[in-house]
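re: the backbone from monday

yeah here it is again, tokenized this time
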């Protein structure tokens, strides 16, 4: 009953939330891997959108392209994607890249490393289908494989990767994982510190236009309080076109609902 009342309150407070379907909510104990909560379809693969920046950060730090949370600072260049506003048109370091979800910074990394390296790491992480070919016939995998294109991942696979990141068990250097965790944005909710990454993308129609009414929204990460650590994945999809990014909406709803959600988890 409390969950129903909370959902009703959220919808009344923000009518846009009533136009969003929650496809999956998944929570794991980071240390044991035990499933604490699973609701919805958490096994169907979809585009990771900007949540791919977390494995890409691990890859970037492990290969040495990224040095630490503040370096390298790269400069915006004419022709780079700029739809993210002023925060995308200034010098950007790894922490800024993750905080503001800067697409061109991702593209600098992917172009420098190449599809073979990205594929090798993604397979080692068991990260979805590890397909960096991009849109069929367009040879754009290094520019947008992760944005409503060839790379697909399920919520359960996202959680598997995140658990490895949190517990230092990915097949990379410990420093690469530590730098990624240190670069990730944090929020406070219900006495927990929540580390996470948003992701939002729109499917393409046959004529390659975007279906802005049915955007995927991700919020993935981990929550910490004392010696407790919970990996979480939230995946949503809009029913109508919204003014705000689906990923930002997914994060807002998740953070608002976290105090109630965590009460439902069988934590010691």
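seq for it, each position gets an aa:
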């Amino acid at each position: 009953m409390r969950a129903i009342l909370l959902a009703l309150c959220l919808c009344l407070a923000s009518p846009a939330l009533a136009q969003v379907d929650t496809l999956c909510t998944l929570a794991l104990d980071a240390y044991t891997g035990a499933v604490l909560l699973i609701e919805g379809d958490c096994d169907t693969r979809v585009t990771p959108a900007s949540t791919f920046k977390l494995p890409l950060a691990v890859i970037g730090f492990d290969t040495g392209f990224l040095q630490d949370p503040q370096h390298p600072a790269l400069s915006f260049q004419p022709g780079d994607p700029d739809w993210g506003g002023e925060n995308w048109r200034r010098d950007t370091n790894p922490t800024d890249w993750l905080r503001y979800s800067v697409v061109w910074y991702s593209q600098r990394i992917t172009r420098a490393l190449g599809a073979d390296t990205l594929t090798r790491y993604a397979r080692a992480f068991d990260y979805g289908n590890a397909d960096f070919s991009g849109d069929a016939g367009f040879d754009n995998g290094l520019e947008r494989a992760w944005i409503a294109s060839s790379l697909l991942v399920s919520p359960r696979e996202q959680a598997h990767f995140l658990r490895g990141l949190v517990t230092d068990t990915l097949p990379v250097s410990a420093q690469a994982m530590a730098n990624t965790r240190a670069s990730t944005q944090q929020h406070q909710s219900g006495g927990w510190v929540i580390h996470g990454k948003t992701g939002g993308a729109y499917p393409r129609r046959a004529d390659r236009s975007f279906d802005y009414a049915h955007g995927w929204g991700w919020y993935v990460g981990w929550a910490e309080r004392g010696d407790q650590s919970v990996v979480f994945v939230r995946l949503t999809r809009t029913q109508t076109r919204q003014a705000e990014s689906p990923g930002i909406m997914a994060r807002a709803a998740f953070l608002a609902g976290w105090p109630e959600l965590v009460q439902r988890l069988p934590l010691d």
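The CA atoms of residues 26 and 190 lie 18 Å apart. The longest strand covers residues 228-238.
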